[in-house]
Each structure stands twice: as C-alpha cells, then as structure tokens.
Amino acid sequence: MSHPVDWYGDDNSVTKEENEKTFRSIISIVTHCA
User: Fold this and answer.
1) Contact 22, 30 (CB under 8 A)
2) End-to-end C-alpha distance for the chain, whole angstroms
3) Global model pTM greater than 0.85
C-alpha cells in the first residue's frame, strides 16, 4: 500500500504489516462467505 496514512488514519500503535494482515484476513473471510 502506497498511502497507509490516508487509509489507517495515523501510524497508531499498530504497524502497517499488522494492518495488512488484518485487512487480508477480513478480505478472505468476506470472499469466503460471499
């Protein structure tokens, strides 16, 4: 992702990698359930 700030707000306590992992997990779940 090229612009993490505008997506995740600020670099809060969670790192970009963690956010990406969570994001992918959500995508997988949504895709799986769809």
Assistant:
1) no
2) 24
3) no
Structure tokens at 30: 């949504």
Separation between Cα atoms, residue 32 and residue 34, nearest integer Å: 6
Average pLDDT in the 18-29 region? 89
Looking at residue 9, the DSSP 8-state letter turns out to be S
Q: Return the HEC string of 10-29.
A: CCCCCCHHHHHHHHHHHHHH
Give per-residue burial for 1-34: e unless 16+ CB within 10 Å, then b.
eeeeeeebeeeeeeeeeebeeeeeeeeeeeeeee
